[in-house]
Amino acid sequence: MRIAEATTDAARQACFDIRRAVFIEEQQIPEAEEWDAADATCRHYLAEDETGPAGTARLIAKGTSAKIGRVAVLRPHRGTGLGARIMRAVMEDAKNNGFTHAELESQTYALPFYERLGFVAEGPEYDDGSGILHRLMKAVL
Predict the structure, then answer these.
(1) CATH code of the domain made up of 2-140
(2) What is the tens place of the pLDDT at every residue in 65-93?
(3) What is the rounded CA–CA span in Å between residue 42 and residue 57?
């Protein structure tokens, strides 16, 4: 499995296709909630193997903090540890690029996954507009 920043139009489109499949089609998040202006300026990451795209995440720079989001793994690749591998790759890239902290907005069911990667939940649960409860999480890189 190769995990790298999506630097071509085709790689970025693969990231968007994964997000569409996972968030819009599977989780029924309204399309208007999935796409935002940050997609044009943030770093996108693509995980792929010889069969094709498998997972994605994005990183938005917020000063010295890297906001990681839109972490998604296609159904055939779930349960393989790919989500953790994507997160570790994004966190390592963030650290190598001078970020000192990472933050994310976790769906509440995924809190234990991010805790295993060193994130700590802060504040109350909230609906981010998608109809799914989230919590803010932070980690030192």
Answers:
(1) 3.40.630.30
(2) 999 999 999 999 999 999 999 999 999 99
(3) 10
